[in-house]
Amino acid sequence: MKIEKKEREFANDLIEFIYKSPTAFHCIETCRNMLDEKGFERLHIAGKWDVKKGGKYYVEKNSSAIIAFTVNSENIEEEGFGIIGSHSDFPAIKIKPSPEMVQSEGYFKLNTEIYGGPILNTWMDRPLAVAGRVVTKGKSPLRPEETLINIKRPVAVIPNLAIHMNREVNKGIELNRQIDMIPLVSTVGKQFKKEGFIKNLIADELEIDIESIIDFELYFYEYEKGMLCGLDGEFISAPRLDNISMVHASLNALLASRADRGVSIVCVFDNEEVGSSTKQGADSPMLRNVMERICIGLGKDRDGFFRGMYNSFMISADLAHAVHPNKPEKSDPTSRPVVNGGPAIKLSANQSYTTDGLSASIYESICEGEKIPCQRFLNRSDERGGSTIGPISSTHLDIQSVDVGSPVLAMHSARELGGVKDHSMIYRSFLKFFEL
């Protein structure tokens, strides 16, 4: 498959974006840096907003969700909002509080819990680094300070049990989350003091006083950087493609857009992998509140906000499942997206996705106008599939919406496989959407 230079460059840019985003906190920091570089003004969720036509703004929530928008026109009532939503989180292994564990054999481990639904065995035998957020004392107990940390070196590994000790391993085994998924950090002697190890590690890394540390939210992540692979470099092999790739595509589309209608919004929620029921998740009024505040800032009344909302359209962007080359029977008999075959529109009779005939037609027309091939994804009728932010957002924002995503293999693996052409194509569809 022939890969164009621009497609390869955009895919490599995605790999860099993912590498800078080992946690949801770092993903939002990476977004913020891109927005700052392009002259977007930061608004504060509890501050007074001064929103004007021609302005470019963003607001964060919990340092793990962000909404960026451009005010292209004051005629919101008729031109509405063009919204692309995605999420910053992904399945991961989180370090518990007071996690230090020392065995009599001298192994030192850190106690963990599983975030979301990863394919557990793909985390085995991989060098793991640590990243997350550290909370320290501030001027007031109600105003603690936060600092991001990225211990960018392989500090741990989760070793498999040798086949000689588990002869049935290749027949499939169930991994116990509390027993089998505990990372090994070091071997230590009898004089080793485990108490306070993790806080000392944080203090040394950030060069801060250990007494200033109140709490932390730390995650293990795969240390190995993503790469292009395949005979012609047509595949993207990387962690966290789901769903950082959609964050990357939508944000770049907003930054490149020359829209002159309504308001263009990129919304990156958090906690989709665990149900979205958080203050920074899709099952919150966060997006709706921001939209209403934009209208208030432009002097609109509540009726103007509702008129604008109902003249809006949302793309819920989350990855889709491609037909697996070794398990094709797991896919629907007639709707069978393939990697590098173009964006997939996601449909479900049970409304796991927001797509209906009207919204699907709108997105397909966008793709057709850009000569982008468009695929359809449905689960087998006897398989229960996942869901996305789309239906959850619809409980707070009852507007036309479509669920789409690039087809990938090995979704929720520690390392997923996507298509170079797909990422470029879905970006182009997002750009065209903003410029309609």
Describe this structure in words.
It is a single chain. With 436 residues, this protein is of the alpha/beta class. The chain folds into 2 domains: 281 residues, Zn peptidases (Aminopeptidase, 3-Layer(aba) Sandwich); 131 residues, Roll (Aminopeptidase i, Domain 2), CATH 2.30.250. It is 26% helix and 28% strand. The chain is built from 10 helices and 20 strands. The strands form 4 sheets. Strands 1-2-3-13-4-14-18-16-17 form a 9-stranded mixed beta sheet, sandwiched between helices. Strands 8-7-10-5-6-9 form a 6-stranded antiparallel beta sheet, sandwiched between helices. Strand 11 and strand 12 form a beta hairpin. The model has no long low-confidence stretch (mean pLDDT 96).
Structural class by helix and strand composition = alpha/beta
Low-pLDDT regions: none
Question: In order across it, which strands form the biggest sheet?
Answer: 1-2-3-13-4-14-18-16-17
**Average residue-wise pLDDT:** 96
Radius of gyration: 23 Å
**End-to-end span in angstroms?**
31 Å
Under CATH, the topology of the largest domain is which? Aminopeptidase
> How many domains?
2
Compressed to H and E, one letter per element, the order equals: HHEEEHEEEEEEHEEEHEHHEEEHEHEEEH
Helical region count? 10
Can you give the helix content as a percent range?
Answer: 25-40%
Strand content: 25-35%
| Overall strand count | 20
In the CATH hierarchy, what is the class of the largest domain?
Answer: Alpha Beta
Taken from the alpha-carbon principal axes, the silhouette is globular
Provide the CATH architecture of the largest domain.
Answer: 3-Layer(aba) Sandwich
Organism: Peptoclostridium litorale DSM 5388
Keywords: Aminopeptidase, Hydrolase, Metal-binding, Metalloprotease, Protease, Zinc
InterPro entries: Peptidase_M18, Peptidase_M18_dom2
EC number: 3.4.11.-
